[in-house]
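This part of the workshop introduces the protein records we will be handling. A record pairs a protein's sequence with a compact description of its fold. Backbone structure tokens are a discrete shorthand for how the chain folds in space. The question running through the whole workshop is how a given chain folds. The record below serves as our worked example for the rest of this section.
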Amino acid sequence: MIINIIAADLVGDYRIRLGFDDGTEQTVDFRPFLTGSLHPDIRRWLDPAQFSDFRIAYGELVWGDYDLCFPVIDLYRNDLEHRYPMETAA
């Protein structure tokens, strides 16, 4: 199944409410991802004016000319940092 973003609204500092075409909504907080990055090309999006300049293109949330974008499934799951439980060795 292909999932698309159909709505995106800034609802606070670095938080965007996303609506998906299956009716699901998520409010994603991008601050931990942005502040946790050491890369200057990522950290520049901490500027509130730059961060708020996003758009939906082809069902994806993008900034600039795809300068910053995330896999739709990560936004859908509200999991930008992939913090899956670690498997324990038997």
User: Anything to note?
Assistant: The first strand starts at residue 5 and ends at 12. Residues 5-77 form a domain with the NE0471 N-terminal domain-like fold (CATH 3.30.2020.10).
